[in-house]
Amino acid sequence: MAARREPSDVIAIIGGGVCGLAIGWRLAQAGRAVTVFERGEAGLGATWAAAGMLAPQVEAEPSEEPLLSLALESRAMWPDFARELEEASGISIDYRTEGTIVVAHDRDDVERLRFQYDFQRQLGLDLEWIPGSEARRREPHLARSVTAAVFSPLDHQVDNRKLARALSAAFTGAGGELREHTEVLEILADGDHVTGVRFAAQRLGRRSLAADAVVLAAGVWSRDIGGLPQALRPPVRPVKGQMLAVQMPPGAPLLSHVVWGPAIYLVPRSDGRLLVGATVEEKGFDTTLTAGGVLDLLREAWETLPGIYDLPLVETWVGLRPGSRDDAPILGATDLGGLIMATGHHRNGILLAPLTGRAIADLLIGGATPESIAPFSLARFAPKSGAAAKPAPSASRLEPVAER
Question: Does one domain contain both 174 and 122?
Answer without folding.
Answer: no
